[in-house]
Amino acid sequence: METVIVERSGGVVTLTLNRSEKKNAINGVMWRELIEVFDEVADSADDRVLVITGAGDGFCSGADLTDAGNTDELRGGVGASVRQMRVVGRAALRLHELPKPTIAAVNGVAAGAGCNLALGCDLIVASDRARFTEIFSKRGLSVDFGGSWVLPRLVGLHKAKELVYLAEIIDAAEAERIGIVNRVVPHDELDKNVAELAGRLAALPPIQLSVSKRLLNQSFSVSMADALEFEDIAQALNFSSADTAEAMAAFVQKRDPKFTGE
């Protein structure tokens, strides 16, 4: 990998955006490497949790608008622009549909596509030095990387419009207050807190977490009756799995369960 670092330990995959000299701005190579990593994690039985963070003192400052791999395509006519933006959209969709829990460990600025990369994760743990901004309008752009879909679901439509229109920078405390961030922790304790949370998720039954993630993700686009039907089918399947049997046995035997993903 040229622009990211991938590390694995105990079922946890840590993906570090590694362009610290650019505040981890995403260039053309990184878009494709993100897709590659998302696909690898989705297909690996050993990978149970994905953590995304940034090298240095920033999470991700968005798309690198100085990178020829981004801008040449975007300025090369409508067809070339659409092709390039479909790569961006593909990365966002791969993250959204990844059937494993995802955590954004936001250690600094998260701007534009970098902000929506964090929002696209299932959970966000932010350093008290983190900052968030939907910077697009100040760059003459409209919101992308799934922000138009994710942001209103997190903060409501009117607040989402305010954040997108004005492109103001909000700190970690305000992000937590409005529902963007799950937890804010002291900067020096970010890695420790994320590692503990990721370890807890990695120890849970992977198939059942994956199903719950899918049920929650689709909840805004289905009726209550459909949601109940999907829940019923999923729960019936769970009772035929080895992990559910293990959970029941562990409960009776008063011990911690050991889940295998079967």
Q: Give the domain tally.
A: 2
In the predicted model, the low-confidence regions spanning at least 5 consecutive residues are: none
The major pleated sheet works out as: 6 strands, mixed
What is the C-alpha radius of gyration, as a whole number of Å? 19 Å
Can you give the mean pLDDT? 94
Corresponding CATH architecture of the largest domain = Alpha-Beta Complex
What structural class results from the helix and strand content?
A: alpha/beta
| H/E element order | EEHEHHEEHEEHHEHEHHHH
Kindly report the spatial arrangement of strands forming the biggest sheet.
1-2-3-4-6-9
Fold-level CATH name of the largest domain: 2-enoyl-CoA Hydratase, Chain A, domain 1
How many helical stretches? Answer: 11
Shape: globular
CATH homology group of the largest domain:
2-enoyl-CoA Hydratase, Chain A, domain 1
Please provide a brief summary of the model.
The protein is α/β, with parallel strands linked by helices.
Short key terms for the protein model shown above:
alpha/beta, 262 residues, 48% helix, 2 domains, six-stranded mixed beta sheet, Lyase 2-enoyl-coa Hydratase, Chain  A, domain 2, three-stranded mixed beta sheet
Q: Can you walk through the features of this model?
A:
- 48% of the residues lie in helices and 15% in strands.
- The protein is globular.
- It is α/β, with parallel strands linked by helices and 262 residues long.
- The relative contact order is 0.11.
- The strands form 2 sheets. The chain has a 6-stranded mixed β-sheet, sandwiched between helices. A 3-stranded mixed β-sheet has the order 5-7-8.
- The chain has 2 domains: 199 residues, Alpha-Beta Complex (2-enoyl-CoA Hydratase, Chain A, domain 1), CATH 3.90.226; 48 residues, Lyase 2-enoyl-coa Hydratase, Chain  A, domain 2.
- Helix 1 links the parallel strand 2 and strand 3.
- The protein contains 11 helices and 9 strands.
- The two termini are 31 Å apart.
